[in-house]
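Q: Here's a chain of 430 amino acids. Please give me its 3D structure as C-alpha cells.
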Amino acid sequence: MAETAALLVDDVLPRQPVRQWVLSLPFALRYLLATRPEVVTQVLGIVHRAISGHLIRKAGLTRASGVTGAVTLIQRFGSALNLNVHFHLLVLDGVYRREGRGNLRFVPVPAPSSAELQALVQRIAERIGRSLERAGLITRDIENAYLAFAPGEEAPINSLLGASITYRIATGPREGQKVFTLQTLPAEPDTPRRDVAESSGLSLHAGIAAKASQRDKLEHLARYVARPPVATERLSLTARYVARPPVATERLSLTEGGLVRLALKTPYRDGTTHVIFEPADFIARLVALVPKPRAHLTRYHGVFAPASPDRARVVPKTRAATAGKAVASGEPSATDRQRSLTWAQRLKRVFAIDIEVCRRCGGKLKVIASIEDPPVIERILGHVIPINTINARCCAGRAAHELRRVALAFPGQSGRFTCRRKEGAGLLRR
C-alpha cells in the first residue's frame, strides 16, 4: 500500500491537479468481471475513453491536439468484505495540449457539474452495454440486461464469488441466506448525493481532488485506493478458536461465542455497524477476494501508459533524483526510475521514523555495514547490551533503543550505524 502510493506520487503523477473518479457496478457486472478478467480490460477501456474524452472536449481540444493521463487501481472488495469489483481512477484534472517540437502544455479543467456527471455515467452505461452485447456476454431487453450464460456453468469457485457479491452465506447449514449484521445506530434518511450520478446500476463519483501543491493529500488518497481488503483493527476473534490469551496487539480482541465479527469502516445508512461470519464462511470471503493469476490490478492510461511517447516528458523524476543516480546528461536511467524504497525510507515515509538522524543531538547516522544472514542477525541481537543498561547520556543511547526496535520489526535486514557527532564512540548495532 505505502510502496504503491509512494511510487505513484514520486515517479508517475506529475505536479498537476489530480481528481479521483470512482465507478461502481451492478451485481451482474461484478460477477462478470470477477470471473472473466479479460472483460475488465474491455470495460475499463470504455470508462477511460469516456472520461478522457469529456476532459478533452471541456478543454476545447481534440484527441489529436490534447492528451490526458490516468492510473486505475481495481479494487475487488467492499467494506463488508464482500466481492465488489469497482474502479478507482486517479485522473489528471486537465489536459496536456500538444505544441510545436513535441512540447506539452497543461490546461486545467474545472470539476464536473452534476449534469455533466449524470450525462457521463449514462454514456458509460450505454457503451458498456453495447460492447458486452456485441461480445455475446449479455442480453438486453427494453428494461433490463442479463448475463448470457448461467453461473452454474462456470467453475465451482464461482459459487463463492456469487455469494460474496450478493452478501450471502457461501457454506454451512445457512448457505444462501443473508449474512448476519448488527445495527447499533439509528437509520439515516435516504438523501440524494450531489456528487454522485447513477444510471442502469452504475454509480459514478468524482468529488475528491488534490491540487498540484497538495502532494501529501495525493499520497494519502493513493494509499486509500491501494489499501488491502482487511484491516486487522476491525476484526474480532472468539475465544473458542484461540487456545491462549489474545495476541500482543491492541487491534485484536476476544469475545465470547464462535463467530468472526467485522466492524464496518463507515456505518451503513440503515445503522449497520458490524458483520458477523461463521469461520468457514469468513475463509470463503477471503478466497473470493483473491484475483485470478495474471490479472493486473493497476493500469496506466494515456500519457502514463508504458508505450506512450509523451511519458518521459510528463512523469516526475523524484526518486531517481533523490538517489543521486542521474547520468551525465541529467536524465536518470531506467533502473534508477524503478528503484524501490529502502526499508529505512519506508519507515520515514509511512511512520515518520527517521532512523538516520540521532533523536537526541540531531547528528547524522550513517549505514556502515549491512548484515542480511538471519542466523548472524539473531546472534548479534542476542549479544546486544540490554536496553535498560545503555548509558542515556550518550547521544547514541536513544538511537540504539530505536534501532533495536526496528531490528525486531525487520528481522530480515540488519546493519550498523554510527553517529557522526560521536564518531568511534556511538557505534550502533541492530
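Q: Can you summarize the key feature?
A: Confidence is low (pLDDT under 50) at residues 238-254, 320-329, 387-430.
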